[in-house]
């Protein structure tokens, strides 16, 4: 309920109670008034009248008695001495009696009326008084008359006695009546007093009730209004001091309750606002602190200049880096410390104004550090304007980018140069070629593009290792540089491929002269790791604008020409001619087709038997891949395996060969399968894991797998290669050295690793009987194998005499067309049914077609 209703109800209640007690008082006062009226208007007048009657009676009697006494004394000297001074009744005393009688009669009439009016119960007394009064006045008059008539003393005295008796009677009545009236008066007085007391009591009660009511109202108000207001005041004081402890919720459903709850809400809103404000302030402070920390800790600094380009502020980091003091810096022109690069948009600070006071973005400046070294920083900043629009200066940041610039320079150099030789690379060369071609278009002239490939570099690399190859490349670079003019550009594309862009020469003679000079210098021996190496070079020349004005095409043409030079016998040069690139194109087509063939599973495995010499039984097979290229027929592996090696296709191809061979070998329980591993395959990541996985997947036992490697495998990364070979052997797989005797270091490799088998290269076998040297080599190798406890296999056995000689020399196994050509897997089962006891072996020949 609303508070004003409550107060109104309280007031009304107080007023009702108060009115009740006042009414009671009013009634009491009314009674008092009536009592008072009766007392004043009735009893007192009656008493007064009775008193006056008594007085009149006494006057009558006294004056009459006095006259009678005087007369008696005068007449009867016996009774009373008479002297000359003795008074005599005179007219006055007589008159007094008359007045007394008159008063009596007048007062009695008043009294009589009063009795009629107020107290008719006293009518009988009144009548008695009246009759006695009449008797008294009568006797008094008669006495007076008797006196006048000189009645005798006795008579007078007798009459006087009668009069006195009458007086006594009447006085007795009057006094009795007065006594009654006075008693009544006292009773009324008592009643009046009681009434007054009651009235006062009522008034007191009324006042007390009113006071109580008002006090109660005040207390209630205090409790319901003042207390909450006090609490609110205390809360306000608390809040003013920053204490936002929540106020208890009140259920008081009035204005005070609403005020308290509103105050409470206001307090919590205020608290939230202050908290948010505080958080915002804290965040701002933290942000500012972070900013300061970053500004101080980072390599950046903050700067500010005025409209006169003089420094007004710079953060501490600047002083640390430059070793300058604030005094030396503040107020000085910024250009005194920072020099913008000529590449900067505004190459001096004052130009900023000319540039329309644009923001400074990444302005590169040089400055001196504490050690007086030149460093580079990058400036960014924004112009400052007063609200009136007046230019006030600039403010921004600066970052030291010396390391970044250096790294960028290095990166740029690396991006455009070959790391090994320091020569420009393909990108650089392309740019230079573009420039030259653009020049030709504008001014005419000619440019030659010469591709150079070292001859026999692969062998050097393979035999002497990469370090020797690198050393050779550096030496070649030096010689080439020495043959070129400053206007020519020598670049290394990678490996042993170089490109020369020859400009400002008469073509084609200029190119021809240069090529000859190059061939001359390259043909001289190179000393690498204490050895004199003789290499040559194959060069291809393409001319702009004759052959093309397209840089790509020029390069391609030069490459084709170089390829032709190589093919035509190396150590020579060729100018590009139309139609030369057909072979190159064919190579690319083959690569594309081979990729598709691997993906589409178009290759097939053939197997060639390995015959045990004495028993003439097939012990195993060598897996040899075959590719029936659509549209071309069977492609010899000697053509596509090197291509696969060069292009990296050998990895997926080798995986497929290993997997297929192992799987198919499980179909011939008594045969092992020998799989060739090319050098690239051997170098692949986790070869051991791959072989293990294939064995596991196919179910072939490891002792039925033989891996054939060539000496090239051991040429580089020898330690790693040996580790791999041992790992493979630990799997239970046998390792055979293929093409033994064709490399430079065959014998030394036999020392390094315990091969399970040596495969004598077929070139020696086929020279048996023809060349004594070959026969000696065969014998020596077979002896060596025997002495080292290695199985020896002779490849390319085509004739019975070869077979017999090899048998005689103790060769363990033989492989060759004499026994069987490589056959598809399906035919191996047939071959297994046969033995090869005879030299002519007609069956084997028939099978190997
Ligand atoms: N990495 C892999 N290399 C492989 C794989 N399959 C073949 N090759 C290599 O390709 C080269 C040519 O191989 P291919 O044409 O199959 O010739 C082999 C035999 O057919 C051939 N051979 C066998 N007997 C005779 C013979 O009596 N006369 C004669 N003229 N040739 C004969 O010799 C080749 C086997 O040589 P080798 O591997 O050295 O034992 C060759 O280098 C193959 O290695 C392959 O799957 N992976």
Percent of residues in helices: 55-70%
Kindly report the CATH topology of the largest domain.
Answer: A middle domain of Talin 1
* Overall outline: rod-shaped
Which parts are unreliable, with pLDDT below 50 for 5 consecutive residues or more?
Answer: 78-84, 839-849
Structural class: alpha/beta
Q: What amount of the residues lies in strands?
A: 15-25%
By DSSP, the count of extended strands is 23
Task: List all distinct small molecules, including ions and cofactors, that are bound in this structure.
Answer: ligand LFPHGCPZ
Q: How is the biggest beta sheet arranged? A: 8 strands, mixed, barrel
CATH class of the largest domain: Mainly Alpha
Number of helices: 26
Terminal CA distance: 120 Å
Which strands sit side by side, in order, in the main sheet? Answer: 14-15-17-18-19-20-21-22
CATH architectural label of the largest domain: Up-down Bundle
Over the alpha carbons, how many angstroms does the gyration radius reach?
Answer: 77 Å
Mean pLDDT: 85
């Amino acid at each position: 309920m609303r508070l004003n209703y409550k107060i109104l109800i309280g007031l009304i209640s107080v007023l009702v109670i108060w009115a009740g007690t006042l009414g009671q008082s009013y009634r009491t006062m009314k009674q008092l008034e009536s009592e008072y009226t009766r007392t004043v208007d009735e009893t007192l007048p009656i008493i007064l009248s009775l008193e006056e009657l008594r007085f009149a009676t006494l006057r009558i009697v006294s004056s009459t008695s006095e006259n009678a006494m005087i007369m008696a004394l005068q007449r009867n000297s016996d009774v009373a001495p008479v002297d000359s001074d003795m008074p005599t009744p005179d007219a006055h005393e007589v008159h007094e009696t008359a007045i007394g009688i008159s008063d009596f009669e007048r007062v009695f009439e008043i009294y009589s009326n009063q009795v009629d009016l107020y107290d008719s119960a006293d009518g009988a007394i009144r009548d008695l008084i009246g009759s006695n009064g009449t008797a008294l006045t009568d006797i008094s008059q008669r006495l007076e008359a008797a006196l006048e008539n000189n009645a005798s003393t006795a008579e007078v005295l007798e009459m006087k006695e009668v009069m006195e008796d009458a007086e006594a009677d009447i006085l007795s009545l009057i006094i009795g009546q007065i006594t009654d009236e006075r008693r009544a008066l006292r009773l009324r007085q008592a009643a009046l007093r009681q009434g007054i007391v009651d009235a006062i009591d009522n008034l007191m009660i009324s006042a007390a009730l009113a006071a109580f009511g008002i006090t109660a109202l005040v207390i209630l108000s205090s409790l319901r209004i003042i207390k909450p207001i006090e609490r609110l005041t205390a809360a306000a004081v608390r809040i003013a001091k920053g204490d936002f402890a929540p106020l208890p919720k009140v259920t008081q459903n009035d204005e005070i309750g609403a005020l308290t709850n509103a105050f409470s809400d206001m307090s919590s809103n205020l608290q939230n606002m202050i908290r948010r404000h505080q958080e915002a302030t804290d965040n701002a402070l933290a942000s500012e602190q972070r900013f300061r920390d970053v500004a101080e800790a980072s390599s950046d600094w903050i700067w500010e200049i005025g409209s006169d380009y003089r420094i007004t502020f710079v953060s501490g980091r600047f002083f640390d880096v430059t070793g300058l003091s604030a005094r030396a810096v503040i107020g000085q022109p910024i250009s005194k410390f920072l020099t913008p690069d000529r590449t900067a948009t505004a190459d001096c600070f004052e130009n900023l104004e000319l540039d329309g006071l644009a923001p400074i973005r990444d302005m590169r400046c040089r400055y001196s550090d504490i050690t007086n070294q030149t460093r580079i920083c990058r400036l960014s900043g924004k112009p400052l304007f007063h609200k009136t629009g007046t230019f006030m200066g600039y403010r921004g940041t600066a970052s030291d980018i010396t390391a970044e610039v250096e790294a960028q320079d290095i990166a740029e150099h690396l991006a455009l140069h070959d790391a090994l030789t320091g020569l420009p690379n393909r990108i650089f060369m392309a740019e230079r070629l573009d420039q030259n071609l653009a020049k030709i278009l504008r001014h005419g002239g000619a440019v030659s593009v010469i591709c150079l490939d070292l001859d026999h570099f692969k062998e050097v690399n393979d035999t002497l290792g990469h370090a020797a190859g690198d050393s050779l490349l550096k030496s070649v670079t030096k010689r080439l540089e020495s043959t070129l003019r400053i206007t020519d550009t020598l670049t290394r594309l990678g490996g042993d491929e170089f490109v020369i862009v020859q400009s400002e020469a008469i073509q084609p003679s200029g190119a021809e002269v240069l090529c000859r000079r190059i061939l001359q210098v390259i043909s001289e021996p190179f000393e690498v790791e204490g050895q004199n190496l003789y290499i040559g070079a194959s060069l291809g020349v393409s001319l702009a604008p004759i052959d093309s004005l397209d840089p790509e095409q020029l390069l391609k043409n030069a490459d084709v020409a170089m390829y032709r030079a190589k093919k035509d016998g190396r150590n020579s040069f060729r100018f590009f001619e139309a139609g030369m690139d057909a072979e190159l194109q064919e190579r690319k087509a083959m690569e594309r087709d081979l990729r598709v063939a691997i993906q589409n599973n178009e290759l097939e495995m053939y197997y060639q038997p390995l015959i045990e010499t004495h028993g003439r039984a097939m012990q195993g097979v060598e897996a040899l891949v075959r590719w029936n290229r659509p549209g071309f027929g069977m492609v010899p592996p000697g053509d596509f395996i090197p291509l696969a090696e060069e292009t990296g296709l050998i990895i997926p191809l080798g995986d497929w060969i290993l997997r297929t061979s192992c799987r198919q070998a499980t179909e011939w329980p008594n045969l092992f399968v020998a799989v060739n591993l090319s050098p690239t395959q051997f170098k692949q990541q986790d070869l051991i894991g791959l072989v293990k996985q294939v064995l596991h997947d196919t179910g072939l036992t490891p002792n039925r797998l033989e891996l054939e490697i060539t000496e090239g495998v051991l040429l580089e990364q020898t330690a790693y290669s040996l580790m791999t070979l041992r790992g493979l052997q630990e799997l239970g797989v046998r390792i055979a050295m293929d093409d033994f005797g064709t490399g430079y270091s065959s014998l030394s490799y036999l020392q390094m690793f315990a091969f399970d088998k040596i495969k004598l290269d077929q070139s020696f076998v086929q020279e048996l009987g023809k060349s004594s040297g070959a026969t000696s080599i065969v014998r020596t190798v077979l002896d060596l194998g025997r002495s080292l406890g290695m199985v020896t296999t002779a490849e390319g056995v085509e004739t019975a005499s070869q077979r017999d000689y090899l048998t005689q020399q103790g060769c363990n196994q033989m492989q060759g067309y004499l026994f069987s050509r490589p056959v598809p897997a399906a035919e191996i089962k047939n071959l297994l049914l046969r033995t090869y006891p005879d030299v002519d072996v007609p069956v084997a020949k028939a099978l190997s077609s």
